[in-house]
Write a structure and sequence with these properties.
By secondary structure, this protein is an all-beta fold. Helix content is 0%, strand content 56%. A five-stranded mixed beta sheet has the order 1-8-7-3-4, with no helix packed on it. Strands 2-6-5 form a three-stranded antiparallel beta sheet, with no helix packed on it. The chain is elongated. The chain starts with a strand and ends with a strand. The relative contact order is 0.36.
Length: 99
């Protein structure tokens, strides 16, 4: 499932990811990573515990703050592996600044 949102160029945006078990209870996966793709198709992957992002804010809840430096479509793919295996993608449109 993808969710589409919009921001203006130059904004900072927090993206949050939640991992749940079959009963809907938040749980920590074995590993969690997020790949951010810019409109220029540059991809950077961040792994929890190895990089500064993603940050764990509570059991099963992770986030990344992204500086939206260019206009166009930004894509994020979250991937949890091992216990709590899930994947989730989102697309976020950044419009040119309007001043």
């Amino acid at each position: 499932m993808a969710i589409y949102n919009t921001s203006h160029k130059g904004a900072n945006r927090r993206f949050t990811y939640t991992v749940e078990d079959a009963a809907g209870t938040d749980m920590d996966p074995t590993t969690v990573a997020v790949t951010v793709q810019t409109p220029e198709l540059v991809e950077t992957t961040y792994t929890y515990g190895s990089d500064s992002y993603p940050v764990k804010s509570a059991t099963g809840i992770y986030y990344i703050d992204v500086s939206l430096t260019s206009s166009g479509w930004w894509m994020l793919r979250w991937l949890a592996t091992g216990t709590g295996q899930t994947a989730w993608e989102t697309a976020h449109y950044v419009s040119p600044s309007e001043f």
